[in-house]
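Reviewers of the previous submission asked for a worked example of the structure-prediction workflow described in the proposal, so we include one complete record here. The input consisted solely of the amino acid sequence. No template or homolog information was supplied to the procedure at any stage.
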Amino acid sequence: MKLPRPLLLLLLLGLAGAGTALGQASAFDPDPARGPREGSTWHFIKSNRDSSKPWSLVMHVVAPQQIEVIKSSGSTSYVEVHALVDLERALPTHLQQWNLRCGERQPTNTVLVRPMPEGGTQFELRPAGGAPRHFAAGPAAHVWGFDLGAFPLIAPRLRHRAAFQLGMVDLNQPDGSGGFKQAPLRFVPVETETLGAQPALRYRLESPLFDGKQGDVWLSPEGELLKAEHELLTSRDWRDWKLERVRSEHLPRAEWERFKLDLQRRTARAQIEMPGCQGTPPVTPAIRP
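From that input alone, the workflow returned the following structure tokens.
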């Protein structure tokens, strides 16, 4: 089955140090006070590694365990993903994606992740208009494709400065038996650099699923995401990918909803003029009150 658009990219990383913590949940403190405050908002540019095909990507903290991410190509594409994170397990458990199509906001994918008593996880993928798919994965298995979306909720809760690994599932790589390829994903501290005037800690990402392709992530000393890039694509919209932070701000809930609505309306007006959408009546995009 061909997925409409891979949704999910989730990367967590350890801060610098030696050794590897194999138990992911134990590496994080679930205390909500350690995470970012509600309303924290980060603006990024996502593109190919050569900076071609730039999109806007915005992350917004709704609650200690909830984040929303918007990707927009400017005037023609709008993708929105909501994610709930189990802070006790440092594991995203419910992800929902919507796309704007011909001016209408439509659900496209849902992913549910259920921790199992024996320590693994059970994935349920529900593509809109398609049959659900279930498959088992290892403990604390995360998904390659959500553009680091849950990272702001989890990274500030790291207990130590040590390399560690977690499980990874790549929805771009079917395994031939109804599931998707999965393998450990290791975060290896490399060096301290400067991005502009900002100190940054750089980490190399390693996994058998990368097939020799390389990627890195840069964090501020406080654990905020500054930049990421990798040779392995997360979505067919790009041939590889790069994520660079442009700015940050604090948006109360009402202002965040207004920001989303304004962006949806601008995109909707452009979409209904596109081939295949002409003649479609304008739709007021749906947002939560």
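The CA atoms of residues 3 and 280 lie 25 Å apart. We consider this example representative of the routine output the project will generate in years two and three.
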